[in-house]
Amino acid sequence: MGSFYNLASSVVRRIYDRRIDTPPVLDPQMFFPNFVRYAERWRELRDEALQIACELHKVPRFHDLMQAQADISDNDGREWRMFIVKAYGVRIEDNLGRCPTLSRLLEQTPEVSSACFSFVAPHKHIPLHRGPFRGILRFHLGLSVPFAADGRPGTVLTIDGVDHRIGDGDTLLWDDTCLHELRNDADQVRVALLLDVRRPGMPLDMQLLSGMLMHGTAGVIRARRSATPYLLG
Predict the structure, then answer these.
(1) pLDDT tens digit sequence for 19-48
(2) What's the mean pLDDT in 210-222?
(3) pLDDT at residue 1 above 50?
(4) What share of the chain has pLDDT > 90, as a percent?
């Protein structure tokens, strides 16, 4: 399954690469102006995430949600857990009910196709990998980021060879089809909000392809949700 996913993702990326040429890190004012809504409410979002973290053992690990990603989630015996509230347009109503601030923000920002709280264990390393397609952009909002010994944020997100330290309330919008990895070098769990945002301004053929891919993925998620409802939290 993992090899098929990797092959399919590689083919899709090549199609997008021929039509879209943007840098790894993008200007959120241009590509996701509604990021301000989330940045302004980061403390409320942090409170909701930390409430979830009180029962962190109940939150699925990434490879529980997607076995094809076990090589980056289940690689070192340390956990990467994701509390998903929306996935490719599919709303997880029970989870949304536990996050009223996030739920309201998502209603105000329909361009957000997926949203989750991400919990990365102390000293977890998520190795180099790439997202599947450029039809979406990844928005990252630091919520509870432990400090390193030197006083800087203790989690390093490396995108296309450049290190980024995203602290509490800090944001970053980036193309996750670029090679990236993450290290939590601190002794506490790192908590962040991750959003997938539909890329604006694509050529029409890429818009159509993105719509087809997202619609198909949403169908798979609904089927899995019906068969194994625990998988999404």
Answers:
(1) 888 999 999 999 999 999 999 999 999 999
(2) 81
(3) no
(4) 67
In angstroms, the CA 63 to CA 75 distance is: 10
Look up tokens 């109503």; give the residue. 93
Q: Hey, what are 231's tokens?
A: 């998988």
Do 195 and 139 contact (CB within 8 A), yes or no?
yes
Strand pairing partners for 192? Answer: 118, 142
Look at the alpha carbons of 4, 9, 14, 18 in this order and tell me if their dihedral is positive or negative. Answer: positive
What pTM, to 2 d.p., does this model score?
0.89
Q: Where are the alpha helices (DSSP H) in the chain?
A: 2-19, 28-31, 35-40, 42-53, 62-65, 70-73, 93-96, 100-108, 204-227
Among 142, 176, 173, which residue's Cα sits nearest to residue 160?
176
Domains of the chain: 2-232 (2.60.120.330)
Length of the chain: 233
